[in-house]
Fold these 3 entries.
Entry 1:
Amino acid sequence: MEQTRYFGYLCPKCGVGVIAGRTTFSLQAAAARIQCECGESELRVETDGVKFRLWVPCGLCGKEHQAELSADALLTGRGVGLACPETGNLTCYCGEEAEVRRSLETLALTAAKDKEDTGESFTDNVIMYEFLSELRDIASRDGISCTCGSHRYGMKVRRAGVDLTCADCGGTLRLSAATDEDLDNLCCHMTLTIRGREG
Ligand SMILES: [Zn+2]
Ligand SMILES: [Zn+2]
Ligand SMILES: [Zn+2]
């Protein structure tokens, strides 16, 4: 049976979620282009037979990101997410249709929240500053991981907290960073574990 793999990204020009499927056969046979209906952005996928290279229009920072995936990662399994190096958030997802649709919804929310957040300060700037430096300490010990086994994650700073999102399964750990208690709470953690999405 011919398998179809889906690709999802957020169009940086019109803000719409773009999703399209290609058969594994066609992906291996020729370069693929997935265009937004507005015609202003397209995701490209090319292969040299071993690896796949992707050019992803990023709906979060507006740039184009390049990524390389093994044939295995792209053509089998539930899927893989690609993170935006500027914002640390997932910006593209490839894999099974249901996974891609779900990730695209999250992505649209993230983009919307980003717009809302601009210009806003933190609930408590001092706490947030301390919180982030503590978080960096934990990260530098490789203390942040996901129950799915991944050590790759994205970080999103909100007004009163920080979200850590697993780059592999999309699981999220929401940390509150508004009060002294929040800070004390973080300081007693040697490690942080993101609860991965169930497989
Ligand atoms: Zn568009
Ligand atoms: Zn980006
Ligand atoms: Zn995970």
Entry 2:
Amino acid sequence: MQNFAKYLQNFKKTYYLTKELFLKEKLASDTIGIVPTILPEDLGSTDFKQAYCLKYAYMGGSMANEISSAEMVISMGKAGILCSYGAGGVSPKIIEKAIIDIQKELPNGPYCFNLIHSPYETAAEMNAVKLYLKYNIDIIEASAYINLTPSLVYYRASGLSRDKNGNIIIKNKVIAKVSRTKIAQRFMEPPSKKFVKKLLEEGLITQEQADLVMQVPIADSITIEADSGGHTDNRPLISIYTVIKNLRDQLHEKYNLKDKIHIGVAGGISTPHSALAAFSMGADYVVTGSINQSCIEAGTSEHVKNLLQSVLVSDVAMAPAADMFEMGVRVQVLKKGSLYAVRAQKLYDLYIRYDSINDIPKNEKLKVEKQFFGKTMEAVWQETVAFFKERDPAKLEKVGDSEKQKMALIFRWYLGLSPLWARKADKEHKSDYQIWCGPSMGAFNDWVKNTDLALAENRKVVDIAERLMVGVAVLYRENILKCFFK
Ligand SMILES: Cc1cc2nc3c(=O)[nH]c(=O)nc-3n(C[C@H](O)[C@H](O)[C@H](O)COP(=O)(O)O)c2cc1C
């Protein structure tokens, strides 16, 4: 009883303790009543931690354009935390360099790489898969999928074999991030026969791999993404968790699967309370994103990190996404300190209303050119043509004479460059920074206010991960104790 009082008294303090202090305080090692110790590494699924050789059931999610940088992946990997390199939007040469750097520092892992789907960039997806296979990258975080693709099935199938007892060995592991039940289902089943046939015909996989891939699900782990930074359907975690977990259980039975697919959660995880909620629901692991962007290791500008450190929960907004602009797909961004959300929405409205840039009323066109682009639409088009001539000439051929598609590419120039302006803190485009961020950033800032972590310059990804997990362990135990000591 006395211990419990001490426990609660120290609770607030413990909240911000580093793991060493947590252990020194002996809060972790004292058994109180019948409630044994709970350590940060006890949280989540043991199977998940073993499958990926991790210390914690905690993962750093991919952040495009190397915001989840090689440095971030290495720091987390050295602490036994899985982090996914943000390969989206990065050229194959730079991804290759990151692979070499990460493998040198983490010869035995853990690390993983993002395989991001874009319906307009199918060649880039296949190139990324080939690169990952060449370097034996055996864990990927697959995201933004609407349907499965041959590239993804190729990655999965080419790592399949049998051991001498006939058991299926899965070398290439897939952690799929989804927010919709239908897409979750595609990842939790074997792939469609048509993809497998195509891969076989192209000689990319063997007959044995073609047979084996029809006997396993595409993913080993499913991260359910709720209201997060970046691509999100803004779904409440407490609702979608139950539905996707139940679906996992049904499919496990239907396909008589050997291993249970892990279910993790992302979107809104940034404080001990939110992570506790996830683990209490039964999540096998938690994934963070927004909070890591404000850390020292993040591949973005000091300006962005300083903006992020003062964000409130309400300082975010949904805005059109660059990669699937024409389809009306949206991303969650920071609205404080940037006009991106408003301006990108304006461009989308113009795209919907008009068939050509020549149809846009003169005053509106001038406003966009002067305030958003800083140059004429014709100049942007010339830049776009030069860019695609070098990178993807087929895209220009596809546009052909379509004025509507030309307009989309001109507007996507703004949407595509705005994250890079933010990363470089480009002064010319100060009002247009596209910074992906979820409400979790504001919750984190509130949790750490009046502590050393209030300043972005003190934020390190591993320290934050450990303090968060320590906080969960403390809260978890407090909740159990509350049941015994009234
Ligand atoms: C700046 C930023 C960039 C992101 N880029 C990607 C990406 O390229 N691929 C991906 O799978 N997820 C991406 N995400 C999502 C994160 O990996 C993670 O799932 C999400 O941020 C978790 O929710 P939270 O923002 O509430 O922490 C990004 C998130 C942020 C904040």
Entry 3:
Amino acid sequence: MTRYFEVIGRDGPARRGRLLLERTINTPALISNDRIVSAGSLWSFGSVEEALEAADGTIDKDKLFIPPHVSVPLHVEPPVDLPQIETNGPCGLVVHPFFLDEPYPADVYIMGAAGSLRNPRELLKAVLEVKEKTPPDSALYAPALATPANLALLVYLGVDLVDSTRVVVDGYLRRYHTHDGSWNIEDLRELPCRCQYCRAMEKEDRPDLQMISDHNHLKLEEEIRLVREMIRRGCLREYVERVVRVTPEETATLRLLDQEGRYLERRTPIFRKSVMYSNTAESLHRVEVTRYAKRVLDRYRAPESEVLLLLPCSARKPYSKSRSHRLFAGALGSWRKRIHEVILTSPLAVVPRELEEVYPAAHYDVPVTGRWDLEERDWLLRCLDAYLERSSYKKIIAHIDGELREAVEEHGIDAVYTGGGTNGEALSRLTKAVKKAAIDASVLDHKKLRVRAVTDYFFGSQSGDLLLAGEVRIKGREVQNGDKKTLATLTPNGTIALTIEGARRLEPMGAHIVEIGEFLPRGDVLSPGVVDADEEIRPGDDVIVRGEKAFGVGRARMSGWEMVRSTRGVAVELRKVEKV
Ligand SMILES: [Zn+2]
């Protein structure tokens, strides 16, 4: 159980937190030696007993205390197991990433031999091993590893604490670091930095090694500030996609991480305030993209519509608000009620109209060139095939043009291709095709379909039917029962917020339930109060809080698995709670 570290914000695996030493350290952070007291390596003592005895005298509650540890190279199994020491203060435990069983409770886990993690696969494996085997509310410290160029990636992987050891030592070896990589200082014709050390060095014939170190340290400090800001803004991923370009190794690490879908998915919020930029090849593999596609295929049910209309995306989101989609809607007129619309786009592939507000469908931006590269095409067509396989349209109209039309048509999708476009002629082609196809089609209740789709998207298949059972009506963004009591509201964020009545309807599904102890929570539910929680809950999800004495609804601040394993932090922000 940790008492000295608390996570206060998340952006994927990256966290902002507080390490409560005498003066609080806001993580991710550089930790300096004066904040740490280490009992030292076991090898500097005559015996285990001697080491433990000496350790007792060095405990300092104001600092991070590191009990005696066994220092070994990365791939050597530590030959001795040391017993746990009671510290009564903030404790940092050295762990060996490749030989890790159940480590003792600690506030900070320090990755042994982290400085020699240079290979992308090893770095990733080491971090993931330690993260899986240590509590989620503890901090991870990777010593002697950070540089200004790799810092954002380390934090994105889940590292909370680093130090400047590597760049300071590099300075004495004439290695000059910047956010864009490092060079031997003698190979630089001019110094790209204008800090006081660099200005001073320019005046000298031979660079002062101490000054290179000081400059390097400064660059690392600047970078950590920027990284913290990126986490606050919820756009560390975009930043990391950009900075890993510095070396092939870093790019490889990010790509390998993306292949570890589960690690990222379990830590990725359901919604972010920031716009998701899809600027790189890696963007196509983001959790937000694969999660959306997976839920459209697994949870979403297309309405029993006879006619499907395929449309292109628009720069403005949600699409309905864009000029082109308003023109499409105008051209469809009252026929719109008889057809189902799906938008084809990169990187989300298939966006049913009902889910156009769900994150990230209304919150992404891509460089628009009209070109679809092979990987994008392949992803789009695989998703479209899978989508069509699960639905029962009799006719498809494709109002798309350019390379998008080419891709869909060449793939052999049997549709009426109206040529796309938004000019008068194009729109009348669209009207004509829809009239012809939908003449016998039945009218759909698009408002209800939207509520059903959004509910299924968040709570799982069939939950929409439960929410909408019996007499219900949709008023604006609210779902009401026969007594005009609100069951749920579609939020402007694209999520759905349940009321107590709505939660009662969904409760039998068993999804998104947070079981709490025998108490009536006031304000937020803290993680020690959580007895059990649905493994599928992600930060930002609407949840149902249930206990012997309380029933309520709220929004998850952490993932379900994290609520169960954490001993600190807010688990659920309660919106409404009732005494049972
Ligand atoms: Zn400088």
